[in-house]
Amino acid sequence: MATQPLVDDAPAEAALNESQFVVPSLHCAGCIAKIENGLARIDGIASARVNMSAKRVTVRHDPAMEPPALKAAFVALGFDAEPLADPGVDLAAAEGRALLRALAVAGFAAMNIMLLSVSVWSGADGGTRQMFHWLSALIALPAIAYAGQTFFRSAWAAARQGRTNMDVPISIGVLLTTGMSLYETATGGADAWFDGAVMLLFFLLAGRSLDAMMRGRARASVAALLKHGAPGALVLTDSGQTRWTAAAQLQPGMRMLVAAGERLAADGRVVEGASGMDIAFLTGESAAVRVGPGDAVQAGALNVEAPITVLVTAAGPDTVIADIARLMDEAGQGRSRHVRIADRAARYYAPAVHLTAALAFMGWMIAGAGVHQAMLVAIAVLLITCPCALGLAVPAAQVVACGALMRRGILVKDGSALERVAEVDSIVFDKTGTLTLGRPVPEGMDAMARQDRAILLALARASRHPLSIALRQALEAQGVEAVPLDDLREVPGEGLFARHAGVAVSLARPRGLVSLFGLASEYRRGTEAHLLRFSDALRRDAGEILPALRSAGYRILIASGDRPEALGPVARATGATAIGHLRPADKLALVERMKRQGRKVLMVGDGLNDGPALAAGHASMAPACASDASQLAADVVFMGDVLAPVGITLRAARRTIHIVRQNFALAIGYNMLAVPLAVAGKVTPLVAAVAMSLSSLIVVANALRLNGAAR
Amino acid sequence: MTGLALLIPLALLCGGVALAGFFAALRSGQFDDPDGAAMRILSDEEDR
Fold first, then answer.
1. What's the pTM value of the predicted model, to 2 decimals?
2. Nearest CA in chain B to A33
3. Which residues of B touch A104 (CB under 8 A)?
4. Are A32 and B40 an interchain contact pair (Cβ–Cβ within 8 Å)?
5. Which of A106, A210, A258, A547 is least surrounded by Cβ atoms within 10 Å, i.e. has the fewest?
6. Is A2 in contact with B40 (Cβ distance < 8 A)?
């Protein structure tokens, strides 16, 4: 069974711990086999199970094994892994499964009832018809009670607060239709509408499940990209021993040992050792900051060079990161006031429908018909206007558009994000990491000899220093193959040293006047030395995308925390106005000021310093290399080294809203045709069933036109 | 008429079996990792 969880025959099963790891680099069947088999061979690990869709690995292991040891096991296999601090309960996945179950039940009931209804329509009467109606009721009642829960609950919640949403007319329509059909069945009437009620639920649930599935996928992908904060640290006890302590249990006054390549789990002060800290998550700056005894370091910072000992000064909710998270929470509250387009439509639609049904009822009463007949007409009106097509109009369009965007590496978190992106008229870009790549890129690599590049790649692979990583990425992108090296060693703070074919080679800190060149590293082979310069390059299409967006009518601003001098070249290259020296709170104030001027702002940023502005913007986008907090705050996350996704998303969002409006027009047009028939009392269950399916199909087919929207 | 007494329960039973099968598949986690399942089938190893 390919997808059954592995069952272990080990008797000590109860004593095993389960840990989850996020492994973003999973991408093929080979990775699955490599991780599952490779980890299972290690002592202390019972089994590993890869979930490809969520890019997660569940490891069952001996409780004695701690996260650093497990992480090392992943690294030995060639994968970067981050422990998931708190796996928690995946609420979205549970909701998706509940919807799928409801959809299956509704589908089953709709098919079987239709089977019985077809025979009634083709002429069954008398006792047979009576029996078929009762059978239909027997299938429909439990199915509606089970599959309709989502709608009933949401409608009830809205009604209790005196509001209305799409679920209110749906629930009223389904419940009244079911009740009336039951009455007709009991009194031996000619028509029962069980098929219509169940089919309606089936169509609507199909829309909801698609919606949930899309959101689940985008969330899982975003979560997989997140570089989760450190789950804990090795703490030095009084007796000189070390003990693994979870982040939540860290207290000020403890001493943490932080190895190279680890993230800090709490704020603190360095007491021993010197190293470089990568605080890109905070500033968006890629260059490591040098720290020594007495310097303050923040939770989440990555120690890149040498082991250090840190005295904890603040942990958990008192850390700098937690402060920024609170600022973001407050800024994000305005966004929850956005009313989704479907609910805005429901505001007018629901009263109109109920009014029409009531008027039809009264009209027939005045015309002298009995209560029974007038009621039948009113029910027919409700059923025919039940927003089947309307309920599908929005999710179908959004699902198709989000799927098309996802294929281009753009993850949209939910449908309301697309609606908000479509409304923006101004775009504020951050500089570092958004307009630029946010990481150093080596310059002039093409000028080097092929063999030198091969040696460089072999050297760079051995280190986690940001410049080494930049070299490795650049060289791997050029298709360079690494050569084997001997005696490879890393000297913290100095560089990498090795021998190749008997000649000493190294990738090290440049000797001499480093500061003149900014970011630089030196490659030495024998007696030759070669200075490698790095710069944070603009994304290669930034110079075209920004002017294109401006000519499309958007107002463009660049807001950066950087020095104004550093902004000059960027502003010239993109032709946009740039504002420098902005702190996180200033960026937030800028966005708030634009909002007060009546502008709808799309914030595009990556650093934690952009977090509050991302949360405050009418909509927001972040590149996949952004800090965790920014990716969580952003509505849309895009991958890759180009800015084109910003334009693609804006165009796709506008097209989606256009199609949604068309769908609304189709659904309303269909109602214009069908309602007079219903009011005239000409709608039989057969007509209702045909009309409902047809209008749903048309709406879905129209939405499918969005498949090519992400161009 | 007698045919109906046999055919209707039979139709319901067939649908019911399919529904139960779907529920069982959902519960045993076969819908948890659709991407992974598509790749595992390419793996030659016997036990998984």
1. 0.71
2. B43
3. 19, 22-23
4. yes
5. A547
6. yes
For residues A419-457, one letter each, b for 16 or more C-beta atoms within 10 angstroms of the residue's C-beta and e for the rest, the string is bbbbebebbbbbbbbbbbbbbbbbeebeebeeebbbbbb
- How many angstroms separate the CA atoms of A77 and A217, rounded? 27
- The mean pLDDT value of chain A amounts to 81
Order across the sheet with A232-236: list the strands.
A242-246, A232-236, A255-258, A308-314, A267-272, A296-297
Provide the CB-side half-sphere exposure for A464 (13 A, CA): 16
CB of B7 less than 8 A from some CB of A: no
Interface test with B, best of A1, A49, A53 (most B CBs within 10 A): A53
Contacts of A388 (CB under 8 A, 6+ apart): A200, A203, A204, A692, A695, A696
Write out the catalytic residue numbers of A: 430
User: Which chain B residues contact residue A100 at CB under 8 A?
Assistant: 26, 31
How far is it, in rounded angstroms, from Cα A397 to Cα A142?
A: 31
Task: Say how far apart CA A416 and CA A398 lie, in whole Å.
Answer: 9
Q: B35 and chain A: CB distance < 8 Å anywhere?
A: yes
pLDDT at A293 over 60: yes
Residue A10 has pLDDT above 50, yes or no: no
**pLDDT exceeds cutoff 80 at A498:** yes
**Confidence label for A573 from pLDDT (cuts 50, 70 and 90):** confident
The pLDDT of residue A690 is: 83
Tell me how far apart the alpha carbons of residues A75 and A123 are, in angstroms, rounded to a whole number: 71
Residue of chain A with shortest Cα separation from B15: A108
Q: Which domains does chain A have, with CATH numbers?
A: 11-84 (3.30.70.100), 232-329 (2.70.150.10), 441-535 (3.40.1110.10)
CA distance A591 to A427: 10
Q: Contact A2/B48, CB-based, under 8 Å?
A: yes
What does the pLDDT read at residue A113?
Answer: 92
Asked if the Cβ–Cβ distance from B29 to A53 is below 8 Å, we say no
Chain-chain contact of B33 with A3 (C-beta, under 8 angstroms) = yes
Backbone angles phi, psi at A43, to 5 degrees: -60, 135
Query: Rounded CA gap, A80 and A90, in Å?
Result: 23
- A574-618 pLDDT, tens digit per residue, is 888 888 888 777 888 898 899 899 899 999 988 777 878 888 888
- Chain B partners within 8 Å of A32 (Cβ): 36, 39-40, 43
